[in-house]
Amino acid sequence: MLACVVATLLPLAIAPGADAQISLSGAVDLALRTHPRVRSAEADVERARAALRETHDAFIPSITAGAGLGQAYGYSTNPPTLFSISAGSLVYNPAQRSYTRSAQAALQSAEYALQDMRESVAQDTALAVLALQHDQQRQEVIQQESADAGVLVNIVQQRLDAGLDTTMALTQARLTAAQFRAALLHAEDDTASDRGRLARMLGVPEQGLTLDSAFPASPVPDDLEPVQVENHPSAAIAAAFAGAEAKQQQAHGDSTFLFRPQLNFFGQYNRYATFSSSYKQLQLTYIDRTSNRSLLTANEWFAGVQISVPILDRVRTDKAHESIAQASKALYDAQNAERDLIDGQNRSRRALAELQAQAEVAGLQQQYSQQQLEALRLELQNGTGNPTAPQMTPKDEQNARISEREKYLAVVDANYQLHQAQIQLLRQLGHLLSWLHATGALPAAPASRP
Q1: Which residue(s) pair with 62 in the sheet?
Q2: Domains of the chain: which residue ranges?
Q3: Quick check: pTM over 0.85?
Q4: Does domain 2-58+107-220+342-382+391-438 have CATH number 1.20.1250.20?
C-alpha cells in the first residue's frame, strides 16, 4: 500500500503544477502517516511509556559524581574533596505498586486514544474526499445544465423571431441560463475550497489534485456490530475507562502513606584533597597513639538505608482526597460517554435507513426523468403518430434535459448525505479503517446521461 501511495503522489512532489490523482484509500493512508493529530497521539503514547519506565527506574540507584578544586587553610572538620560519588534509590514504598499500575493503565489509555485518533483522522479524510467528489459531480452536472440553458435561449430566440414564442418566454429562458451560470460559479468555489482543505489535510500541493475513485455502494451491512475493545464499544470509550483506572490507581497510591514505612538506599564516596592545609591539620588531630600514625585517610565512604514513617501529613491527606474525587469523576465521565455513544450508534442506524430510502426515491425519480427524456427524443424523431395531438419541439427537449439534470443533482446530493452517514456510522462502530483498507480504490461511477 505504501508503494502505491508514493507512486500516486510522486507527480505532486515532482511537478506541483501537474495534474495528479489520489484514491480514497491512498488519501487516508497518507493522512494517517502525516496528520499532526496522529503524530500528537503517538507522542502521548511515548510519554506514557516513559512514565511507566520511571516507576520501575525508581528502584535503580541514581549515581551522581562531582569534583571541586581548591585550597583550605586552618582547621576544618570537613576538608575539601577532590571528587565525590553519591548514589540513592527507592527500596520500598507501599504506594509504588499502585503508581506502577496507574502508569500501565495510562499507557493503555494512550494506546487506545491513538487507535481512536487514527479512526477520527480517517473519518475526516474520507469525508473531505467525499466532499470533493460531491463538488466535482455537482460542478459537472451544473455545467451541463448551463450548456443546455444556453441552447434553450437560442431556441427560444429563434422561435421568437419566427413569431412562435413570446418575449416573456425569452426572458424566462435567459433568467434560467443566468441562474445556472451563478450556480456554476458557486459550485466551482465549493470545489476549490474543498480541494484546498483536502490538500492541506494531506500536506500536498493543491493545484491539480483530483480523485480517481468512487465511494463504494452499500458499505455498511445492517447487522454490523461495534468492535469491542476491552469489552467496550469503541477505542475511545476503552481509553476513557483505562484513564479512569489510571486515576483510581493513582488515588490508591496517594492514600497509602500514613503509618507505612518507606525505605530509601543511600551511599557516598569522597576523595579528600590531601594537599590542603585543613586536611593536614586533621591528620595531626586523628593520631593513633600506639602506632603514632594518622587515622584519617584520603578515602571516605558510607552507605545505608533510611527508614521514614509518616505520622501526620495534612497536605498529602488532602491531596489523596483530591485524587479520589478526580478518579470518581473520570469513571462517571467514561460511563456517560459510553451511554452517549450507544445512543448515537442507534440514532445513526435509524438515520442511515431513512437516508437509504431517500436515495432510492431520488434515484427512481431521476430514472423516470431519463425515461421521459428518451421518450421525448423518440417523439421528436418519429412524431407522435397523431396529427391532432400537440407536437413536441426542441424547446420541450431542452426543458426535459434540464429537468433530468435537476433530478440527477438530487441523486448526487442524496448519495452524498447517505455516504456521509455511512462513514460516520462506520466510525462509531470502529470499522472505518478496516473497511477503507479492504475496499481500496474503485472505478469512478459515470455521471453521463443517454
Answers
A1: 88
A2: 2-58+107-220+342-382+391-438
A3: no
A4: no
